[in-house]
Amino acid sequence: MNPFLTPPAATEYAPFYANYVRLAGSDPLQALRTQPPVLYQLLADLSNEQALFRYAPGKWSIKEKLVHMIDTERIFAYRALRIGRGDTTPLPGYEQDDYVPLSEADARPLANILAEYDAVRAASLCLFESFGAAAAERVGTASDRPVSVRALAYMLAGHEAHHLQLLQERYLPNMA
Which superkingdom is the protein from (predicted)? Predict the structure, then answer.
């Protein structure tokens, strides 16, 4: 039985994440399985130089966006691990705009970033698939807000869905 088929209650995550929870659909683990082929299809013909594209000044490059997705996945999975294992220590937030410049994503080959994406996704799926119902329902604190393991699965899938949508709507159509 998949303990992630019941969507989290609004009390299981910060209001900021409501759109991500919605974008995850009805089965976040299935979304996590089907998102990589979508990403690869979107980026299939992209060169390293094209992956440096920014749709507007001050926006992240495609490479930076991908590394941001990886960083966020790692952080959400780490939170899920800690909370799922019953750790009640409040977990800090993270500032994405501080992480992205220090990632040096634009200096990396796109293939290297995608290999990291695959490894992180495989690890995340193994982790979430290991949780039973009790672990999925556990609630901890992250960024000074309550969050459940179940909500983290939805937030993760929805976060990626959000960024795939941005790639489709703002990046790829505007590339010369």
Answer: Bacteria
| 165, amino acid identity | Q
* Residue among 131, 136, 145 at smallest CA distance from 18: 145
pLDDT for the residue 1:
76
Tell me the DSSP string of 33-101.
HHHHHHHHHHHTT--TTGGG--SSTTSPPHHHHHHHHHHHHHHHHHHHHHHHTT--SPBP---HHHHHH
Sequence-distant (≥ 6) Cβ neighbours of residue 16 within 8 angstroms: none
pTM, rounded to two decimals = 0.97
Show the domain range for 126. 15-174
Adjacent-strand bridge partners of 145: 142
Type of residue at 37 = P
* pLDDT value for 152: 98
- How many domains are there within the chain? 1
Residues 142, 93 contacting (CB under 8 angstroms): yes
